[in-house]
Design a protein that fits this description.
about 140 residues, 5-stranded parallel beta sheet, Rossmann fold, about 35% helix, globular, 4 helices, 5 strands, alpha/beta
Length: about 140
């Protein structure tokens, strides 16, 4: 598939900069894949946000969680992971902002599916998730 669609989940209060850098780097010609960032860019009323996010996640091939130091406590990220799992959308995480393998993870994100921000690792993770869940 030439252009898999990714939903980028991130801690809005603490990792907006990393989300911007991450999605910007996906447009780099050296990146071995193309993704579209379908995450919400604005704060919405809760009911409207949930409907919009469920719909967008359902249109994506996978969800990437940008895991920062405080992401484990981000309510929106936890909900996005749950929405993805409900819709059989594969999920993996990428450590950002100084986070690492000792950083607490949000509920529903597995440690063995959370990787360093290295494009070869991310490319391999995308290859894997494109064979899982709704993509299989």
């Amino acid at each position: 598939m030439a252009n898999p669609r990714a939903f980028i989940s991130f801690d809005y209060d603490n990792n907006r900069g990393e989300r911007l850098y991450f999605t910007g780097q996906t447009k780099n010609i050296k990146t071995p894949f193309n993704i579209e960032d379908w995450s919400s860019k604005t704060v919405l009323p809760q009911t409207q946000w949930e409907l919009l996010i469920r719909t967008k996640i359902n249109k994506c091939h996978f969800l990437i969680v940008l895991v920062g130091l405080k992401t484990a406590t981000a309510t929106g990220v936890k909900k996005e992971i749950a929405f993805a799992k409900e819709q059989n959308v594969p999920v993996f995480g990428v450590y950002v902002g100084g986070a690492n393998a000792t950083t607490p993870l949000p509920t529903g994100l597995q440690r063995n599916r959370t990787i360093e921000w290295k494009w070869d690792l991310i490319s391999s993770a995308i290859d894997q998730v494109m064979k899982e869940g709704k993509n299989s």
